């Protein structure tokens, strides 16, 4: 029997990125508290450990940001995802009510119009790149409408976000192209904000600009500072599109690979919400987030020190055999409990209900109109934290 290869994990390895699940399984079984070979961070991979860390914000702090290659300073780069309470709660609360299930339900007509517009142009018997045909465009237009981004600018903004997230093989540092894309995004969103200051509307940018909240540090109500507004709106422009693009494409590829489950959807559209949840678990769009420790923590006989970075592998936690039966199979009616595909605890994804609804509508449209679709070649580009496709060949039938 050949010797087992040395266990190596890096979030910046293209080989791991393309197929992380065998490495994740080894991490869970052989090194549930894994130390990066260059001593840059720890890695937690089991569901119980990841879920516990996500809930314990006092120990696993977000103040340095969600990614060690570009550390933050209490939200100056990434807004609320790089804050701890109480500041996190005050600023997140500005839009908390806008993304509830009830609020998303009020957008039903607008969401359906976007889906019908993009998928309604597709023809049976043709082969398309699903990403270019609709998986990029639907989430980009939904968040573009909500933020009031002019139609002509949306594709450029999406391209910049893709460039910002793209990483180079084996390199922890952000590439120059990502830094430049970040500058372009901030300049563009900053210009939109300036326009809304003088000409407000009913879009999210205007709502953020006009919102006030009680700040006990000054003992009074206040609005967000210009920098807080910029970072919050930057975050909304990315989070509103990137994860949903990956969810739609990952889900359609996974369902093609599980034809019995896809036929359940074709036969009964009422199972689509459960199928979207399973798509989120089976091939999670956001594969990891990082935290920094505020105190020493001992897990599985290993002590991690205060100040250490810890990567929480959401993608691994969602395939943990200790939590899920037969986790490498896509099972629509899998019993649901706590799941960490949108994170968990105070930082659970603000737009989770919107992302779910967009994906549900796309799956339903495909089930009605292209029930025998086939997937051909599909490619990924190495990106930070999120994992999905950049092209998916799809034959419509």
TrEMBL record:
Its cofactor is heme. One of its GO terms (biological process) is cholesterol metabolic process. GO terms for molecular function: heme binding; iron ion binding; monooxygenase activity; oxidoreductase activity, acting on paired donors, with incorporation or reduction of molecular oxygen. Pathway: Steroid metabolism; cholesterol degradation. The keyword Hydrolase does not apply. It comes from the Bacteria. Keywords: Cholesterol metabolism, Heme, Iron, Lipid degradation, Lipid metabolism, Metal-binding, Monooxygenase, Oxidoreductase, Steroid metabolism, Sterol metabolism. This is Steroid C26-monooxygenase. Belongs to the cytochrome P450 family. The keyword Oxidoreductase applies.
């Amino acid at each position: 029997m050949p010797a087992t290869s040395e266990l190596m994990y890096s979030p910046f390895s293209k080989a791991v990125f393309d197929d992380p699940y065998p490495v994740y399984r080894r991490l869970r079984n052989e090194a549930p508290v894994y130390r990066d070979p260059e001593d840059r961070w720890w890695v937690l991979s089991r569901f119980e450990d990841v879920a516990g860390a996500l809930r314990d914000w006092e120990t696993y702090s977000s103040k340095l940001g969600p990614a060690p290659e570009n550390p933050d300073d209490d939200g100056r780069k990434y807004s609320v995802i790089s804050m701890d309470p109480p500041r996190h709660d005050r600023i997140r609360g500005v839009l908390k009510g806008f993304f509830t299930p009830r609020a998303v339900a009020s957008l039903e007509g607008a969401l359906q119009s976007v889906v019908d517009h993009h998928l309604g142009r597709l023809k049976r018997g043709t082969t398309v790149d699903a990403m270019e045909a609709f998986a990029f465009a639907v989430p980009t237009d939904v968040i573009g409408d909500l933020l009031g981004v002019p139609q002509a600018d949306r594709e450029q903004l999406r391209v910049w976000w893709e460039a910002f997230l793209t990483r180079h093989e084996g390199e922890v540092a952000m590439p120059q192209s990502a830094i430049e894309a970040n500058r372009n995004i901030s300049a563009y969103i900053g210009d939109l904000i300036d326009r809304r200051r003088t000409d407000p509307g009913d879009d999210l940018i205007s709502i953020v600009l006009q919102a006030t909240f009680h700040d006990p540090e000054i003992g009074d109500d206040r609005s967000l500072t210009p920098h807080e507004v910029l970072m919050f709106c930057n975050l909304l422009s990315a989070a509103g599109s990137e994860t949903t693009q990956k969810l739609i494409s990952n889900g359609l590829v996974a369902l093609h690979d599980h034809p019995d489950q896809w036929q359940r959807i074709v036969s009964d559209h009422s199972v689509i919400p459960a199928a979207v949840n399973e798509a989120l678990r089976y091939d999670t769009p956001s594969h990891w987030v990082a935290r920094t420790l505020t105190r020493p923590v001992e897990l599985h006989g290993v002590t991690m020190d205060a100040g250490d970075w810890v990567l929480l592998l959401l993608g691994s936690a969602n395939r943990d055999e200790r939590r899920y039966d037969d986790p490498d199979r896509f099972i629509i009616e899998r019993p649901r409990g706590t799941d960490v595909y949108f994170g968990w605890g105070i930082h659970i994804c603000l737009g989770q209900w919107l992302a779910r609804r967009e994906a549900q509508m796309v799956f339903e449209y495909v089930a009605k109109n292209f029930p025998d679709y086939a997937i051909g070649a599909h490619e990924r580009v190495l990106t930070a934290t999120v994992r999905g496709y950049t092209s998916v060949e799809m034959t419509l039938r």
